[in-house]
Amino acid sequence: MYTIIKHLHMLLAILSLAGFMARGVLRLLDSPRLKTRFARVTPHLVDTALLLSGLWLAWIWRMHEHLQPWLVAKLVALVLYIGLGMVAFRFAGTTAGRVVAWLAAITVFIYIFSVARTKLVLPVPV
């Protein structure tokens, strides 16, 4: 069961990043596709499933009994990623601000992935 949930979590992470990148490109192009129901709902469904699968993995590992530093780092980075995404898609007043926030969010996502892979707060570049 653990392997299935882990692979589901990894797949959802890839889908989440791909969707975030696609929405960012569409936002920069000012595409009307961003207003479709699919574009508005799908990211929330994927990200909710991603979070739930992560919580399930943490429960399987009994992380609730002793919080690991790398997991705390991932959670803090997740909040930063969400904040940067909000700036990129809602609050940035200029295109340059959107691009900077969007690229910073992608960088934070890569950090989250690196922490998940290495279980280190400061992962060594590979």
TrEMBL record:
The chain crosses the membrane at residues 6-26, 38-59, 71-92, 99-116. The keyword Transmembrane helix applies. The keyword Lipid metabolism does not apply. Keywords: Membrane, Transmembrane, Transmembrane helix. GO terms for cellular component: plasma membrane. InterPro entries: SirB. Pfam families: SirB. This is Regulator SirB. It comes from Thioalkalivibrio denitrificans.
